[in-house]
Specification:
Blueprint: H1 17-30, H2 36-49, H3 52-64, H4 66-74, H5 76-82, E1 93-97, E2 102-107, H6 116-119, H7 124-127, H8 129-137, H9 139-145, E3 155-160, E4 166-170, H10 182-186, H11 191-195
Parallel strand pairs: 1-4, 2-3
Bound molecules: fe (iii) ion.
């Protein structure tokens, strides 16, 4: 979905969005165009059931399985779907890999596009005007505020989710985790690391 698509879930909302959303929901329900129960299920699914754990499993698999990693970098939508992660806001996924030379940071400068099937709903800082403006202008400053210090010679690339694409950052695998199970590796991967606003935790 593009930003100019009227069905886009967060296309430029007017002031007092909550009131307007309620008014719209009431009207659509009265006209029989939507079923409020179905809406509740969608909201509950993404706020309660889908969370960053899905993305962490994808990252752990990529760290453990070179052929999955290659597929993920080539076609993240298909690779994630193969693990059962697909659906709204995950139709066009792109995975970007942190390396010793390049760190990746994801933003949606226009609104708050986010890979729901992998990370759940976006945190409020991701939707904030400050993050959206500064991530592009001063990514190193933003990273420093998140406590991320980049290695010498490591560049930052900022990915703006301005089309239908949703990005997943594959953080660098921490040292000292050789031979770890995928479950144990997934425990090291938090939400911020998969947006690029954090790093994977170390084994200690
Ligand atoms: Fe957006």
């Amino acid at each position: 979905m593009a930003h100019d698509d009227p069905d886009h879930p967060h296309s430029l909302l007017p002031p007092e969005p909550e009131l307007r959303v309620r008014a719209l929901e009431t009207l659509l329900t009265r006209k029989g165009l939507i079923d409020p129960g179905a809406l509740d299920v969608i909201i509950e699914t993404y706020s309660e059931k889908v969370g960053p754990r899905n993305g962490a499993r994808v990252v752990a698999r990529a760290w453990s399985d070179p052929s999955f990693r290659a597929t993920l970098l080539e076609d993240a939508t298909a690779a994630c779907a193969a693990l059962g992660y697909h659906g709204r806001q995950g139709e066009h996924l792109v995975a970007v890999e942190n390396t010793a030379r390049q760190h990746n940071l994801v933003v949606c400068t226009l609104c708050s596009c986010y890979p729901w099937p992998l990370l759940g709903l976006p945190p409020s800082w991701y939707k904030s005007d400050a993050y959206r403006a500064r991530a592009v202008r001063d990514p190193r400053g933003v990273l420093a505020e998140f406590g991320v210090t980049l290695a010498e010679g490591q560049s930052v690339r900022v990915w703006d989710s301005t089309a239908e694409i949703r990005y997943l950052v594959i953080p660098m695998r921490p040292e000292g985790t050789e031979g770890w199970s995928e479950d144990a590796l997934a425990d090291l991967v938090g939400r911020d690391a998969m947006v690029g606003a954090g790093l994977a935790r170390g084994p200690a």
